[in-house]
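tool_call: predict_structure(chain=1)
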Amino acid sequence: MTILVTGANGNIGRNVIDQLIQRGANVLALVRDPAKADFPASVSVVQGDLLDPDSLRSAFHGVSTLFLLNAVVPDEFTQALIALNVAKEAGVKHVVYLSVIHSDRYVNVPHFAGKFGVERMIEQMGFSATILRPAYFMNNELTIKDAVQGYGVYPMPIGSQGLAMIDARDIGEIAAIELLERHNASGAMPLKRINLVGPDTLTGTDAAAIWSAVLGRAIGYAGDDTAAFEHNLRNFMPGWMAYDMRLMTDRFISDGMVPEAGDVERLTAMLGRPLRTYRNYVAEIVQGATA
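tool_result:
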């Protein structure tokens, strides 16, 4: 039986696939265009679209375990519900779903609320499932690297409550561990939720200070103007998405993304090593050592 990975061409999906391959798993990558797929020879590729039930019926043949990741798009919720319904019909037993931390609290943020709805459906449908709830991805900092270096300002309005940023490589490894635990289980396992966090909870001022230390020059924090942040995002993304991101940063400022007691220790034990740090990640992207 096979583990199918959706979102296979994305950063998280590629990390999940890499980790599964390292562990000898039989992996199937779901992609819209197989001609553009570039995976190791051991990975099977299947064409599919999460809005096309027929393509999913074909893709899910022989699949027992599903890694479900949905991009932030207007029909994200519909994609997830179609995928889960078809998976159930096809006899898929196990699901690892990439949700988001505080999905049950950021109720006014569209892509958070949608993910919480998917969590509820997974629970009610009776899958043997793990729901992964990652905090802010360190890898998002790639999009602001040039702005930080060029203007001397850390531009993300992340506030003073703190974000427990996590590296996508750690997400991929934890997801692979959970997928294989369920895939290899003799029967159904209880549903569980896992907060995915980094080792440090950082404010905007903290992030700017780390960039300062890595670059060897002063980097300031731009502040908490989420309206200006939305306005800037509209230059390279649709208005609905820019507004969604603004609502998210509003909740960063009011609530933060703060781990629960024991989260860091739990993840460290799962990985058998320390979680990757924000400082090291910033150093890597400044040196061009990661993507």
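agent: The first strand starts at residue 2 and ends at 5. Proceeding to next step.
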